[in-house]
Amino acid sequence: MAVTYILFSADLNKYYIGSTRNSMDERLEKHLSNHEGFTAKAKDWKVVFIEHFDTYEKAAEKEKTIKGWKSRKMIEKLIHSSNQV
After folding, report:
1. Average pLDDT value over all residues in the chain
2. What dihedral do alpha carbons 83, 49, 63, 46 form, nearest 10°?
3. For 43-75, what is each residue's pLDDT tens digit?
4. Is 37 helix (H, G, I), strand (E, B) or coil?
5. DSSP assigned state of 27
6. How many CB atoms lie within 10 A of CB 23?
7. For the chain, what is the domain count?
8. Range of the domain at 63
9. 56-69 and 72-81 helices cross at what angle (nearest 10)?
10. Per-residue pLDDT, 8
11. What angle do CA 51, 68, 66 make, to 5 degrees?
């Protein structure tokens, strides 16, 4: 199983969109650990959206679709329509 997920950092007031084959707990722990990259800029990331898929390819496709929107408004609409906030 794989997931597409959206994280939110209140400190940065930014969203991060990703997908993984790993458990969401494991992936979030990695985002919150000391590492390089975009999510290293904050330590308050919270999962605000998650969607499960049968394959990683489908999860990665959904991630690409969301990133392609380039619209905070559409991302927030997706989050609120999922009732996960």
Report:
1. 94
2. 160
3. 999 999 999 999 999 999 999 999 999 999 999
4. coil
5. H
6. 11
7. 1
8. 2-81
9. 130
10. 97
11. 15
